Amino acid sequence: MMSKYFVLFLVISAYYESTETALIKRQLHEKINPASRTWDEAIRLAKDFASQMTLEERCNMTAGVGGHCVGYVLPVPRLNFNGLCFQDSPSGVGDGVQFSTAFAAGIQIAATWDRDLMYERAAAIGQEFRGKGVHFALGPMMNIDRNALHGRNWEGFGADPYLSGENSFYYVRGIQDQGVVATAKHYICNEQESNRTYRPKTGPSQGYSANLDDKTMHEIYLWPFMDSVAAGTGSVMCSYNQVNGTQACQNDKTLNGLLKDELAFQGNVMSDWGATKVSLESALGGLDINMPGHDNLMGYSLLQFIQNGSLSEARVTDMIVRIMAPYFLVGQDQNYPSLDLNRDAISDHYVINQAVGRAGMVLLKNVNNALPFNRNVDKYYSIFGSAASRYSDGIDPHGVLGLDGALYQGGGSGYVRPTYFIDPLTSLLEYAREFHLQIQYVIDQYDYSAINNALNNRGFFGGKCLVFINAWSSEGRDRQNLSAYHDGDKLVQKVASLCSSTIVIVNSVSQLNLEPWIEHPNVTGVLWSGLPGTEYGSALVDILFGDYNPGGKLVFTLAKNDSDYGTNISDTYNSNYTEGVFLDYRHFDKNNIVPRFYFGFGLSYTTFSFSKLIISKAGHENYSIGQTFHRQRRLSAYANQHLLKFYDPAYSITFTITNAGGRDGSEVAQLYLSFPEEAAQPPKILRGFERVYISSGRSKQITLQLTQRDISYWNVINQKWTIASGKYTVSISTSANNADIKLQDTFNI
């Protein structure tokens, strides 16, 4: 099976117009793990393994033990099993180990809207986990950006379940193709940090309760987990919070009912670290591994429940089969590397890291083509802001509110300690050396005497001003507001008041309020740099000077007023998802709220036109080889066969995109679907996309497929995905703004 996959991938790469992307593909591809099995094969091996274990050994394996890894499962030497190592994070090998690439964050890869890069980034991450001998990578993180202030939004893929699901799917594939088990997290409805753990008057600690209805659960929050399970993820991590009043790691409805029964998930459920609150109820509720295991809630403690008849031995055996099946699934029993967390496994992954970093940058404003700079004409540059430079006390960010440097990732368990970091100022100075540019800079943004002196430096009159602002967040706490750090808004206003060509670089974990300065006439350009990883500086310079044409798109809406989002962090122990399925752009559409920048928005240095929209039932069109690859979901041996029927194509949407401008570039074609009234859906929902790279003056025909699931809604009465009867409207757009719809047509069912 895998040899066919290898050949297909090489053929497809030859058809890609982006030579850089194709080159990265070939480099990663040769290392695809050849040892993966089907789930049926893996489960047979796991059952055989479990049958050779004593009852005490089986109980012991259900809880972690101390070790070199953040989580560790005991070895069974007499069965030639050396144990399992679990390690953070979704953006690289974390927990402070050496020689790891700090990859561009989840929020950045999502902003590329590029499935090839999604896979390639994940494959590179998987290679580093494998190279260090780690068995389980604790990612992807796919919690939805429900609250703009959520401290962990940067780890995930944005505010839309479809986009998050596609990212999750290709992350799982990329990781597990390297022989590493992926862990989909945090299951489920873990959309804030506030009150994730609190102490009631009696009993164990608890987490806030996310309270939501069945339709919202299926169509928003379960959606990306379904994609992860379909991709074949070996593990799912349950979260700290409660769901409708029951802790997530002992929640029979979500773990057994939704995940293991409805989605037919065959892997294991592990707890987030310390998220297990009780013993027997967790084992019965669907938890298979308690991490880190020091609390004696599972492991050997389960033996007493078997002896008194409250827990069956069959359930414990099922837990072991679920723990071991992923190990056999991806071939970790066959010449897997020994464990050495500080082994150098970074290879040349800076290449893909830089590609993702710049592909995820979003051009928000560009008055009169202020960007890109012309290095032969634009010779004078004034740079302002601590976010342009390095941290003052080393390579690691410290504290919560005192960050004083450029950001490449956010904080918490998702953070990866890098071997190096290239900040924007360093890259700009190197560029100035090569192309003879004149640069001055002030990185202490509270030193307004120095800022004034720089702005009044006659030698730089008429030059370009770059203002760098940022906003940080971390696991463990939510953001306090949506303002830039260190009075960044004040800095922009000051520079713009004296510089007629001010470019603002926004280095933010997620949403930010840009209203204090966005309409200032001297702010002629705004580039959302996001969290681009350790190649930040070089990626940014490529865009500023036109060596790379920006094509990233927002993965959330940027509102004019913070209250416009319609959701917020709950200060109580209950977070009520009363908005239902009307989240982010769906909420803005429903309530006719005009944002500052729409979900899916992003400018380019060139222009595109759309034409020739054709809607046909699947199977009646000719696919281009480049477009069919991403729908070949059966190519993986370890895909979840039960869910594949939901991904059968129903309709094909074909159209042509033309690069009508003077530069090579890319556009993200976004397919929004409007449903019949029966489905009770928002005005439109994202149901397809493709980032298309096209040379100047060239055209390309694109085919997007609507699957059975894409045209379905969750029927709460019949408890199944249902296709409504009536008229469906297909809109091909470049953002969620109705004004950006380029083509539109309907079909009836």
Automatic annotation (TrEMBL):
Residues 667-736 form the Fibronectin type III-like domain. Its EC number is 3.2.1.21. It is found in: Secreted. One of its GO terms (cellular component) is extracellular region. Residues 1-21 form the signal peptide. The keyword Secreted applies. It catalyses: Hydrolysis of terminal, non-reducing beta-D-glucosyl residues with release of beta-D-glucose. GO terms for molecular function: beta-glucosidase activity. SUPFAM superfamilies: (Trans)glycosidases (SSF51445), Beta-D-glucan exohydrolase, C-terminal domain (SSF52279). Keywords: Carbohydrate metabolism, Glycosidase, Hydrolase, Polysaccharide degradation, Secreted, Signal. Pathway: Glycan metabolism; cellulose degradation. GO terms for biological process: glucan catabolic process. SMART domains: Fn3_like (SM01217). Beta-glucosidases are one of a number of cellulolytic enzymes involved in the degradation of cellulosic biomass. Catalyzes the last step releasing glucose from the inhibitory cellobiose. Belongs to the glycosyl hydrolase 3 family. This is Probable beta-glucosidase G. It comes from Adineta ricciae (Rotifer).
